[in-house]
Every structure is written in structure tokens, then in C-alpha cells.
Amino acid sequence: MPDPLLQLKQVMNATAPMPETDWEEFSSFFKPFAAKRKEVLTKAGETEKYLYFVTEGVQRIFYYDDQNREATLVFTYAPSFGGVLDALLLQQPSRYYYETLTPSVFLRAAISDILPITNQRPALSFLIRQGVTHALSGVLERLVELQCFTSEEKFRQLLRRSPHILQLVPHKYLANYLGIEATNFSKLINKVRI
Questions:
Q1: Using an 8 Å Cβ cutoff, are 73 and 61 in contact?
Q2: pLDDT by residue (tens digit) across 56-108?
Q3: d(CA 47, CA 88)
Q4: Nearest to 58 by CA among 80, 87, 33
Q5: Which Pfam families does the record match to this protein (predicted)?
Q6: What is the dihedral of CA 170, 176, 177, 180, to 10 degrees?
Q7: Residue range(s) defining the domain that contains residue 51
Q8: Among the listed residues 7, 157, 169, 192, the one whose alpha carbon sits nearest the alpha carbon of residue 74
Q9: pLDDT along the chain (194 residues), means of 10
Q10: What DSSP character marks residue 46?
Q11: d(CA 31, CA 46)
Q12: Are 79 and 166 in a shared domain?
């Protein structure tokens, strides 16, 4: 299994390489953390305290409305960052839940350690802006899919973007993520050539 800190460094360098001194300070804040299956790491109403880097497992961010309807918004899995990023960076109560779908292993860093050094380390500040910009771009793309695509087009786009997702995430969560009834999702799996 790859070294988790090396995985983190590779993901960060793919976004925006940083000086070694910045990396050493930044990486020193990340500590190993493990969670069981179906563990809620962040609840709605809580301020997100940690930036997670996923090294094993699958998680999701989801929302409950006032009628107790559930909406799966995002999946995270290795090697990627996780957590409720808007609540983390704004330091405001989360509107969403962050839950493990499988047993999960992370590196996590307290935002109270990270935020102060972003003012002192321009490369780190740039990296965070790049990460947020990429996330926003993905959200906008997903909004177009949700508003304009048919169920089949949404399903095909999901498979283009993440071909391995059918093996990682239980289908009921994928159906919810796409806004498709579970029975229609099953029909799509049988209909669409993968």
C-alpha cells in the first residue's frame, strides 16, 4: 500500500507544486485517522474542523431537507480530499453531513493549524484557491447535468467521469446522487453498455 503522505504530496503536486519547505510544514499537520462504516464525521449544524485526505474507503456528503428527504451530493474516495469544504473554509456551521459508506482511513489536519500558514505561504494559498476553483468547476458541471440531462445521459456522464464508481458505491446512493429512482437506476445498469 502506498505511503499516505506520498499520496497526499502527489495529489497536491498535480494541482500546483509547492516548495519543499512549504510541503514539510503543511504535511506536518496531517495525522492518521480511521472511521468505521456508516460513521458520520460531520453533522449538519457543526463547524467542520478537519481537512480530510482519503487514503482508503468511500464517503459521501449528503443533505436532509425539512421533509426528511435525502440528497447525496458528493462522493469521496482515495486519493482525494474530503470533508464539508464550504463549512471548513468559511468556518460556519455545515448544512451537510459527511459520512463513511465503508470503513475508511484518512490523513486529517485541523483547519486551525492550516489557515494561519496560508497567509505566510503564498504557494499554499494558491494551492487552496486552485483546489476550490476545481471543486466549483465540478459543481457547475454537475448543475448542468442535473438540469439538462436525461437520466440515461446523467448515468453515462457519471460512468465517463468515474468508471469504477459502480464497484465502489452502493447503487442506492448512486441513484440518489443522480436524482433517479432506484428501479430506474437498475434498468439503466442493464440497458447501458459499460
A1: yes
A2: 999 999 999 999 999 999 999 999 999 999 999 899 999 999 999 999 999 99
A3: 7
A4: 80
A5: cNMP_binding (PF00027)
A6: 110
A7: 4-139
A8: 169
A9: 87 87 92 97 95 95 94 92 92 96 96 91 87 87 91 91 87 91 86 72
A10: S
A11: 21
A12: no
The closest alpha carbon to 13, from 116, 123, 111, belongs to 123
Question: Residue length, the chain?
Answer: 194
Total-model pTM: 0.89
41, 63 contact by CB (below 8 A):
no
Q: What is the spatial distance between Cα 121 and Cα 106, in angstroms, rounded to a whole number?
A: 24
Grid coordinates belonging to 25: 510544514
- Give the pLDDT score at 47: 92
Number of domains in the chain: 2
What would the DSSP string read from start to end of 55-76? EESEEEEEEE-TT--EEEEEEE
Model pLDDT, residue 194: 62
CATH number at residue 103: 2.60.120.10
Cis preceding linkage at 79, omega within 30:
yes
Helix pair 111-118, 20-27: axis angle to 10 deg: 160
The Cα 106–Cα 8 span in angstroms is 10
Three-state DSSP class for residue 161: helix
